[in-house]
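Final report, Chapter 2: Outcomes

The project's central promise was a pipeline that accepts a single protein chain and returns its three-dimensional structure in a standardized token representation, suitable for archiving and comparison. That pipeline is now operational. To close this chapter, we reproduce one record exactly as it appears in the project archive, with the input sequence first and the structure output second.
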Amino acid sequence: MRVTPFVPHAPAVLAGVLRSGGWDEWKADAAAQGTEVAALRITGLDADAIEHLVRHAGRKLGLEVQTGDGWAVVLGSRARLQALARPWVGPPELAELAHQIGLALPVELPVMWPTARGTVSLEQPVLVGILNLTPDSFSDGGALLTVAAAIAHAERLLEDGATLLDVGGESTRPGRPGPVSAADELARVVPVVAALVRRWPALLVSVDTVKAGVARAAIDAGAAIVNDVSAFRLDPKMGEVAAASGAGVVLMHSRGGVTDMATYDHADYGGDVVGVVLEELRASVDAATACGVLPDRVVIDPGFGFSKTVEQNILLADQLAALRALGRPVFVGPSRKRFLGAITARELPDRDRATAALCALAYERWARLFRVHDPAATRDALRIAHALGGPQ
């Protein structure tokens, strides 16, 4: 007889153990998903709701329940938490809570992302190379002011492991002058998008813009994806453009306008940055689909470095898996951000190792697309994370 401990930090680990014991793949995967451990933080509860929660969740369902003044933390397997999310089997006093728990629980994420010019497989990490065509971006502004320079840099990004390229013509760097005009942004972005798809016809290009007119022109020039750092907040026509074109859409969490969204001016989350970001991203997804954007075209971005303090960015990165509740693939862009510099005491040009480390940890927390300045270092870190099994 042998007793071997193992740490079921991801469903794939337990599924592998079950398959090695002879279970078929479907049965092993289903059992593993049900035993995944999750925890829920619940606030705004009155004393009566807490009493019912302790009785039903703790005593009847066998969940761990910790409570305080107006709050509770519930911990247990995914299967038991799903039972708590069924209002028809619990006390009527918990019906609304059961509904909210159902919205908060993780769901299976897609492994394919359709765009206007092809489908992106998310079965392995996807590196998105950054092409900043601005004179004032925080990291590499002014380096790519001609089409030839942009194409040369794109070639390096692709050689280093990027499979998508994100082209932007307006910086969100704090302290810069006012918004870039649509005419200037178009002049920067459209010729480069057109040149990229001429040079690499199968390449999927993303346009990083908050302007519907720029997005439309870039799509006409060959872009397949719209990456809107305002999640359609700043231009009401963006949803219409995305829906009509069938473009893939990246909805990033942010607050404020382009000149202050990367500051701390809007960083008040009432002590629950994860919960509020989740709520605001859910509203963004709902608004996009209400405009006609197909749900399978949407990926979400927590917006590292945008309207979030160092501590909030760290917590959001740690709890990134909470975004699984939205059912959409997760796209992250931590590259060379200020909070990485605060953690490592590294200046801008020397933050690529920190970026790679954060991306590998984000992959373990279900991120699948990674927007970076230097794909080479991040590629290797993600290969290791993927080889170890990731969170699947």
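Archive annotation: The radius of gyration is 22 Å.
This record, like all others produced under the grant, will remain available to the consortium after the project formally closes.
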